[in-house]
């Protein structure tokens, strides 16, 4: 019997790369995203009859129930890996952040994954041993400036995962995170209110590396199969993990903020 994975944020970026990797290994792939066109573009890269389409908003509990039920009907009832991946980025001083932006980031990046875990549990239990992998971030290891809402959600995903890894152990369901640093996806093209430049430019100015999206997809596979609760992806994530545990004096104060001009 073939295995099956359900991927949120499957219409682009990490979700797309993960779909391609698992499909290449013979898995049936459920592609979920709010962007129907993105799903179709990803699906066109996969073998025929090896994927299903689920247009949904992760903030809607009813949408989770409908999408997962439809997916299970098409996957033969299997859900071996649930990739809880959908998320958005934001940045800038919290004092200037619009309230609707704060609420949107929290709803998509934290409430969404929690609702997903709740809805996916019975399917994961029926297919056990199984795994839920959720996308956290290097920003969930160490929170730099101008990342309050985003970092809070990524720390929250860590907490959710650690709690569920214990809660679901009797059901033979592993809960895991991947914690990537800066991934070369369209999210980096967004503009930070702190500097009016893109996150991509800020990463370059800080001298930090971009991790290929294919490396993140491989980390999803490794996390689902492995024993580590949290998988660091990229040199920056690994360096932050080491510093927070063993050498806090090495933690960067600015992280991705451009260096200040010397006073004249």
Q: From N to C, what is the helix and strand string?
A: EHEHEHEHEHEHHEH
CATH superfamily: NAD(P)-binding Rossmann-like Domain
**Rough shape?**
globular
| Overall pLDDT confidence | 85
Rg computed from alpha carbons, rounded to a whole number of angstroms: 18 Å
Tell me the count of domains.
Answer: 1
Bin the helical content.
Answer: 40-55%
Task: Tell me the total number of β-strands.
Answer: 7
Strand content: 5-15%
Q: What count of helical segments does DSSP give?
A: 8
Low-confidence stretches: 200-204, 254-264
What is the end-to-end distance? 69 Å
Produce the secondary structure layout:
Layout: E1 4-8, H1 13-24, E2 28-33, H2 36-43, E3 51-55, H3 61-74, E4 81-84, H4 99-126, E5 130-135, H5 148-167, E6 173-180, H6 199-205, H7 213-225, E7 230-233, H8 235-246
Parallel strand pairs: 1-2, 1-4, 2-3, 4-5, 5-6, 6-7
Helix pairs in contact: 1-7, 3-4, 4-5
What does it look like?
- The protein is α/β, with parallel strands linked by helices and 264 residues long.
- The protein has a single domain, classed as NAD(P)-binding Rossmann-like Domain (Rossmann fold, 3-Layer(aba) Sandwich).
- The protein is 43% helix and 14% strand.
- It has a seven-stranded parallel beta sheet with strand order 3-2-1-4-5-6-7, sandwiched between helices.
- Helix 5 links the parallel strand 5 and strand 6.
């Amino acid at each position: 019997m073939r295995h099956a994975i359900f991927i949120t944020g499957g219409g682009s970026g990490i979700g797309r790369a993960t779909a391609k990797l698992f499909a290449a290994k013979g898995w049936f792939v459920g592609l979920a995203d709010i962007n129907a066109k993105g799903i179709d573009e990803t699906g066109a890269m996969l073998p025929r009859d090896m994927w299903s389409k689920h247009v949904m908003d992760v903030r809607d509990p009813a949408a989770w129930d409908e999408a997962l039920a439809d997916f299970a009907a098409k996957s033969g009832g299997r859900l071996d890996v649930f990739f809880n991946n959908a998320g958005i980025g934001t940045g800038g001083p919290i004092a200037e952040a619009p309230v609707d932006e704060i609420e949107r980031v929290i709803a998509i990046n934290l409430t969404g994954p929690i609702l997903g875990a709740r809805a996916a549990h019975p399917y994961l239990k029926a297919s056990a041993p199984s795994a839920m992998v959720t996308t956290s971030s290097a920003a969930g290891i160490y929170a730099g400036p101008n990342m309050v809402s985003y970092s809070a959600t990524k720390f929250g995903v860590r907490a959710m995962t650690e709690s569920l890894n214990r809660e679901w152990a009797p059901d033979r369901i592993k809960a895991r995170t991947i914690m990537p640093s800066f991934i070369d996806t369209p999210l980096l093209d967004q503009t930070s209110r702190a500097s009016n430049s893109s996150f991509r430019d800020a990463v370059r100015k800080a001298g930090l590396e971009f991790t290929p999206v294919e490396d993140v997809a491989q980390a999803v596979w490794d996390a689902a199969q492995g024993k580590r609760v949290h998988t660091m992806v990229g040199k920056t994530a690994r360096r932050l993990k080491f510093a927070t545990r063993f050498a806090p004096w090495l933690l960067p104060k600015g992280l991705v903020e451009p260096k200040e001009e010397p006073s004249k």
